[in-house]
Automatic annotation (TrEMBL):
<dbReference type="Pfam" id="PF02515">
    <property type="entry name" value="CoA_transf_3"/>
</dbReference>
<dbReference type="InterPro" id="IPR050483">
    <property type="entry name" value="CoA-transferase_III_domain"/>
</dbReference>
<dbReference type="InterPro" id="IPR023606">
    <property type="entry name" value="CoA-Trfase_III_dom_1_sf"/>
</dbReference>
<dbReference type="InterPro" id="IPR044855">
    <property type="entry name" value="CoA-Trfase_III_dom3_sf"/>
</dbReference>
<keyword id="KW-0808">Transferase</keyword>
<protein>
    <submittedName>
        <fullName>CoA transferase</fullName>
    </submittedName>
</protein>
<dbReference type="GO" id="GO:0008410">
    <property type="term" value="F:CoA-transferase activity"/>
</dbReference>
<dbReference type="InterPro" id="IPR003673">
    <property type="entry name" value="CoA-Trfase_fam_III"/>
</dbReference>
Length: 406
């Protein structure tokens, strides 16, 4: 393989759960040396999230792939000294603690600046590092609510629902990785002996703001027109017909027939040419007003066919549609396989060896196929001896340290 894009970049990850570890995963995917600092004995709490057997979840193995695990007690002077030594030779520090936590541990901005004047620091928190809510704790579920996102998810007339994944944490992690890359780029463009100001090297990602950023025109539509977006279930506000429909075999499909020309083909296909030619349905605005009638017509058509029959017919007519995949469907899909998006490993979960387990590949694709995953999320402290040796520790000192950290 050619040299990885981020080869030579060292990242120190002081993060639990999903947000900062997602940033670390993205950087590791493309070749950065990501050293994950984990607390003694228990490690990142994600190790036990959705744990079905053993002591290390598949969620942890996925989110922390490509990293090295170093056990450190950040509350101790020894742990602080180890982290500062690593920071002196690092390019990036990631953290997703409540603002002020690192300061209490002696890793405040001044100390980090003295240790490494070129260090890029990415901080992820519920509400950011400044402002009246900055000191307030909060997981992504709360941030999704504050960001206006949760109000848009679910069925009308019912309480808002979740999306089924930790979307707030994941999006925040992606934004932080983007910020890190901007700072690295800006650093490399500058003069080698002139460090960027500290504020230009600090990436401040707030979970609530990341969720606000994906609500599209939610705010300007309210400010300009007094339009309040509402939950629409499988629909998208103001766009029709676009929904999920139950077929005769009990499986649902998604059909996006909301383009003007597509709509006419779509209605003709389902045997409703009068809808295709209706003057009131030639624009998306009119179709949205008639969304219930359109969905009823499409639903009746879908109910008379299996999902495979419906999808084949829609595909032949050039109407965008697709199945609603389960995990089993994704794992067996030829398109994902062709691009290396399901990569298989034998993985030990602490109870037994699970063979040929599929994991999602690396995005984005460069060169036509996903880069190979170098390693799954490591065992707790798996690289402690290796990393301390790189810092110049003698073997007897490493042995003593590992004994105390168990």
């Amino acid at each position: 393989m050619t040299t990885s894009p981020l080869h030579g970049i060292r990242v120190i990850e002081l993060g639990n759960y999903i947000a900062a570890p997602t940033t670390g995963r993205l950087l590791a995917d493309f070749g950065a040396d990501v050293i994950k600092i984990e607390r003694p004995r228990t490690g990142d709490e994600l190790r036990r999230w959705r744990l079905y057997a053993g002591d290390t979840s598949m969620l942890y193995r996925t989110t922390n792939r490509g990293k090295r695990s170093l056990v450190v007690d950040l509350r101790s002077d020894e742990g602080r000294a180890i982290v500062l030594e690593l920071i002196r030779g690092a390019d990036v520090l990631l953290e997703n603690f409540r603002p002020g936590t690192l300061d209490r541990w002696g890793l405040d901005a001044y100390t980090l600046q003295q240790a490494n004047p070129r260090l890029i620091v990415a901080r992820i928190s519920a509400f950011g590092q400044t402002g009246p809510l900055s000191a307030r704790p909060g997981f992504a579920a709360v941030a999704e609510a504050y960001g206006g996102f949760r109000e848009l998810v679910g069925e009308p007339g019912r309480p808002p629902s979740r999306t089924g994944v930790s979307i707030g944490d994941t999006i925040a992690g992606i934004y932080a990785a983007f910020g890190v890359m901007m700072s690295l780029f800006e650093r490399e463009r500058g003069e080698e002996d002139v460090a960027l100001p500290l504020d230009r090297r600090t990436i401040d990602v707030a979970l609530n703001e990341t969720m606000l950023s994906v609500t599209e025109s939610l705010i300007p539509e309210w400010e300009a027109y007094g339009i309040r977006r509402e939950r629409t279930g499988g629909r998208m506000q103001g766009i029709a017909p676009s929904n999920a429909y139950l077929c005769g075999d009990g499986k649902s499909i998604v059909v996006a027939g909301n383009g003007d020309a597509i709509f006419q083909r779509y209605m003709t296909l389902i045997g409703r040419p009068e809808l295709a030619s209706d003057p009131g349905l030639q624009s998306n605005e009119g179709r949205w007003e008639a969304r219930d009638a359109l969905d009823d017509a499409i639903g009746a058509w879908a109910a008379q066919r299996t999902s495979a029959e419906a999808l084949q017919t829609l595909d032949e007519a050039g109407v965008p549609a697709g199945p609603i995949y389960t995990a089993e469907d994704v794992a067996a899909d030829e398109q994902y396989a062709a691009r290396g998006m399901i990569q298989r490993f034998d993985v030990h979960d602490g109870a037994e060896l699970r063979r040929d387990v599929g994991f999602p590949g690396i995005v984005p694709v460069i060169g036509g196929v996903s880069r190979p995953i170098t390693a799954l999320g490591p065992d707790l402290g798996q690289h402690t001896a290796e990393i301390l040796a790189e810092l110049g520790w003698a073997q007897d000192r490493i042995d003593d340290y590992e004994t105390r950290m168990r």
